[in-house]
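Narrative of accomplishments. A recurring question from our advisory board has been how the design workflow behaves on a single, concrete structure rather than in aggregate. To address it, we present the structure tokens for one chain from the evaluation set, followed by the sequence designed for it. No filtering or post-editing was applied between the two.
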């Protein structure tokens, strides 16, 4: 699978995301919303946004790896947070965690603030789409 980042010069330069990604070949993998849930179904750190973000990315990586891909095969992420201000205030640390998983690769992303998530202890949930294989 190959992909091309689409960032038209007529649009504002994206920071921390891509405007679009065009894929060539591969199979599409749709990931359900992932949270900082561990194998027992509990949120590992109910009051720590950074650790929930880290565990959420780890869960995404595990699913993509199980499908035969790498985390950089993720082409789209929708990030749901219960507190946009807390996310924004911790964006530097969030960026450090993000780069530990993705490096300087940025899929198409959207951030949405919601009143609550299914698990009352979840502060963040990410759904993703990946294109894996040939």
């Amino acid at each position: 699978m190959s992909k091309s980042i689409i960032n038209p010069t007529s649009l504002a330069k994206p920071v921390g995301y891509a405007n679009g990604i065009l894929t060539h070949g591969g199979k599409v993998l749709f990931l359900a919303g992932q949270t900082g849930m561990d194998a027992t179904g509990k949120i590992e750190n109910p009051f720590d946004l950074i650790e929930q973000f880290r565990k959420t990315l780890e869960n995404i990586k595990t699913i993509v790896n199980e499908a035969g891909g790498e985390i950089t095969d993720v082409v789209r992420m929708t990030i749901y947070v219960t507190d946009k201000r807390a996310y924004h205030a911790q964006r530097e640390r969030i960026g450090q965690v993000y780069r530990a998983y993705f490096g300087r690769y940025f899929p198409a992303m959207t951030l949405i603030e919601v009143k609550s998530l299914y698990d009352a202890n979840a502060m963040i949930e990410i759904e993703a789409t990946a294109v894996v294989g040939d």
